[in-house]
Amino acid sequence: MGDRFDWDGPSVRLERHRRGWSQPDLAQKLQEASGDEGQGLPEREKLVSTISSWENERARPGDKYQRLLVGAIGVRRRPALESEEYRQLLVVPEVDTGSDEATLRIRFQKATSLTAEEKAQLIQATGELRSLDRRGNDPDTVASMHAHVETLHVLLTDTFNPADRLVLARTLGDAEAIAGWSALDRGRPRESLTHLTSAVAVAAFGEDRSLQVFASAQRAFVLIDLGEYQQAEDLVRELLALHRRSLPSGLIAWLFGALAEAAAMNRNGALCKDALDRGRKMLERGEPGDEHPYVVLNEGHFTRWEGSCLAKLGDPEAVDLLDHVRRDIPPSFDRALGGVLVDLLQAYIAQDELEAARAVFEVATATAGTVGSVRQLNRLRALRTELVARIDTRVPAV
């Protein structure tokens, strides 16, 4: 536990949330930690923008900021997924004592003896799995995710302390939501729905309405992949109608993005563009303290989402939008890059730019294969059929 590691964006974001700090709060702490170095720091607003760029993995804190982060929030310790303490939590007692009562006592003892540090390890591991999941469906990541979810389920079942149960339920709900998206991307809609349904239930038990609504809305993407576009649109509409007045602006912006995508798939162009406009306004209205670790959404992400929706509608503006945002995707967001390339291919085909489409198809296929995205590979198969048909119509008959 004494090992030191450099701070990176996801760990900074996680530490902020653990302490209940907003990005402006952290900016202030950095300024306070700077002492004489403070003369060289940007103004508070620009410093907040710098923190945002770390957390969205567009940049990493340099040496100067590493020193300031240590002064403001302390030394970053070994990642939870690599720590022996976390590994011990993953070992679920399976002792054959010949007595159900004795076995239960062993399990209860482990669950009820959780320390504050161990609970923090579970939360930190969830954040680390989220970052790994962005890079794709590596088998080791998927296996770690399943083990993490199972451990949280067992601990929540075996814990009686109300405060501990709230922490475990919220952590499990977040982990289930990550696992749900991973399963969908791996082409497993039934498994995805199981994870997301569990996420909704445990988030409600954990009294986290934002997470409950977020996981509920994620089920719309399962419906989309099943071709149930109207149901997906209706689901997100209903969630917005029920909860938009009680949710933070960043999550409302995300819900409008989800509504826009469902509407685009449903060929409802007017609703799609209206939802995009409303989502962007809500994103601009974001206030300190309304961030949630499971909602990673900034101007660049929303523009990427807008380009995806417009591509699905066949709107010519999609090509320029997507061609621009593909250059700004953080290096670790491999799955997002794969999605943008498939969207760009769809946009090129819609505009009959077939040579550009052919070039993007090769890169998109390689990227989707590398990250193991069955979801995007399925889209590519359908788009390839359309691309070949368009090219063939240009070949004169013999």
What is the strand tally?
A: 0
Number of helices: 19
Measure the end-to-end span.
73 Å
The geometry reads as globular
Mean pLDDT: 89
Order of helices and strands: HHHHHHHHHHHHHHHHHHH
What is the helix fraction of residues, given as a range? over 70%
Number of domains: 4
Supply Rg. 23 Å
**Oligomeric form:** single chain
Beta-strand portion reads under 5%
Give the uncertain stretches in residue-range form.
none
Most strands sheet: none
Helix vs. strand class: mainly alpha
Structure commentary:
This protein has 398 residues and is an all-alpha fold. It has four domains: 9-73; 81-207, no CATH class; 228-297, Alpha Horseshoe (Serine Threonine Protein Phosphatase 5, Tetratricopeptide repeat), CATH 1.25.40; 308-398, no CATH class. 73% of the residues lie in helices and 0% in strands. The protein contains 19 helices and no strands. It has helices at residues 9-19, 23-34, 44-55, 63-73, 84-90, 100-112, 116-134, 139-158, 162-185, 189-205, 209-225, 229-243, 249-265, 269-284, 299-313, 317-325, 334-350, 354-371, 374-393. Helix 17 (334-350) runs parallel beside helix 19. It is globular. The mean pLDDT is 89.
